[in-house]
Each structure stands twice: as structure tokens, then as C-alpha cells.
Design a protein that fits this description.
A hairpin with a 4-residue loop joins strand 9 and strand 10. This protein is α+β, with helices and mostly antiparallel strands. The longest helix has 15 residues.
Length: 240
């Protein structure tokens, strides 16, 4: 997944789609990664939408706002989203990345009436598709599972500021030795359990509080599945 993480460091990608003749057309666009995919929005009547209706073939490369290429190209497939859950996931990822700039774009699109004509595009890098396929048929030994002892070692209180879709929010996470947890903060209250897995630790809580925890000594990296809360919490020393 390194290719996806490398792309997501940039603010723009050049999205290349293809005409029926095979000619490539490049457009610099905002984008955001969520899971193993990239999401982009555009106008429903744009050329790229018409080209994707004909062929899902695409390429992406990091770029600047003018389309100047800043890295290598990646072959990909792209398709238009129609399901509300999928478009909400795409919007949430872009909002988490661009924050007030996305809100501003929404405002001007609303004023002009263009917001109702938006189209959402989901892009999957060909390299990632191949990696997932190889992982599914690999015969290498299974990775070490996260154990109950790993969970118990995280017991205690963790605090920090998490980036949200609009600003930052002060969060307190309390983990109990049995793996249950409670998260609280302004406008936030949820409970749930930690779920050990293969090399990762998941949290499964009420509402949208599901995602991944990555322990780093006295720090705990948290990423919700919808990417609307993410950041690092720090262990609160016990009194006495």
C-alpha cells in the first residue's frame, strides 16, 4: 500500500482518462484516499465522466494545481459512484483531507447550483489490486496475531487532539484490561471493545467508532474507518 500512501501526501493528482481513440486526457484534481481506494469529485457533465462511462481505464500521478507531474504514473481502474453510502464515504474522505477548503468549495457550488450535478469517482490502483490478489493466494506463514496480552498492555487512559472533518477535538480514551473501552470528548461519547487481529488492533464501538489502533510506545495512533477522526493519543501517567 506504499504507493497509495505516497500519493496521499500530495494535494493533487493528475487523473488521466482515455477517449475512444485511445488518446489520453489529463486533469489535475483534488483527491483523498480511504482504505485501498482514491476518491475524486467532478462535474457530472465533464469530459472525464463521459470517458469513464466508455472505459474504466485510467492512470494517476501526483501533480501540482496546474497539472505539472510530481512523481511516477500508476495504472488504475476508475468508475462512477451511484450508491449513497459510497458517495458519502468519498465525501467524508475529501472533507477530512481538505477541511475548510472543501467546505468553501461546497458553498460556491451550492450558490451556483452545481453541487447537485457533482459526480463521484472511485479509483483503484492496479498495483494494489495485484497485491491483494497475491496476498489472498500466498502460502507464507501467517503473521503473528495481536494477543490478549497486547490489549491488556494498553489498559489505562489516553488523551490527545484528533483531527476531525471541521477542526480538532480533544479526546479521552479509556481502555480496560478486558479490552473494553470508552471514548469521550466534546460532542463525542462511545463505548466498545478492542478486537485483536493479524498484526493489527481494531476497535469496534458504537456509532461510527470503528477503526484501527497502532501502538507506538507511549503514543497510540488512532484512525477511524471513515477517516473523519484521526491522530495520536498519549498515555496519561497513573497518579502516585
Amino acid at each position: 500500500m506504499d504507493a497509495l500512501a505516497e500519493l496521499d501526501r500530495h494535494r493533487y493528482v493528475s487523473l488521466a482518462t482515455f477517449r475512444r481513440s485511445g488518446a489520453e486526457v489529463r486533469t489535475p484534481v483534488w483527491f483523498a484516499a480511504a482504505g485501498s481506494r482514491i476518491y475524486v469529485f467532478t462535474m457530472g457533465e465533464s469530459g472525464k465522466v463521459k470517458r469513464l462511462r466508455h472505459s474504466s481505464r485510467a492512470r494517476v500521478a501526483p501533480s501540482d494545481a496546474r497539472g505539472g507531474i510530481r512523481g511516477g504514473w500508476h495504472d488504475a481502474t476508475a468508475h462512477l459512484l451511484t450508491e449513497p453510502d459510497a458517495t458519502e464515504r468519498a465525501y467524508g474522505a475529501l472533507l477530512a483531507k481538505y477541511r475548510w477548503q472543501m467546505r468553501l468549495a461546497d458553498f460556491f457550488s451550492w450558490l451556483s447550483g452545481r453541487i447537485k450535478r457533482r459526480a463521484w469517482i472511485e479509483i483503484e490502483l492496479a498495483l494494489i489490486v495485484l497485491m491483494l490478489a497475491l496476498a489472498g493466494c500466498a502460502s507464507t506463514p501467517a503473521a503473528r496475531a495481536v494477543s490478549a496480552d497486547d490489549v491488556a498492555a494498553l489498559a489505562g487512559t489516553w488523551r490527545g487532539w484528533l483531527a476531525t472533518e471541521q477542526d480538532f477535538n480533544a479526546i479521552e480514551l479509556t481502555i480496560r484490561p478486558d479490552g473494553s473501552f470508552e471514548v469521550s470528548g466534546p460532542r463525542v461519547r462511545a463505548t466498545g471493545v478492542l478486537v485483536p487481529g493479524e498484526e493489527i488492533l481494531r476497535f469496534d464501538g458504537t456509532g461510527p467508532w470503528r477503526g484501527t489502533l497502532v501502538p507506538r510506545g507511549a503514543a497510540l495512533r488512532i484512525l477511524r474507518d471513515d477517516h473523519l477522526y484521526r491522530g495520536t493519543l498519549y498515555r496519561v501517567p497513573e497518579a502516585g
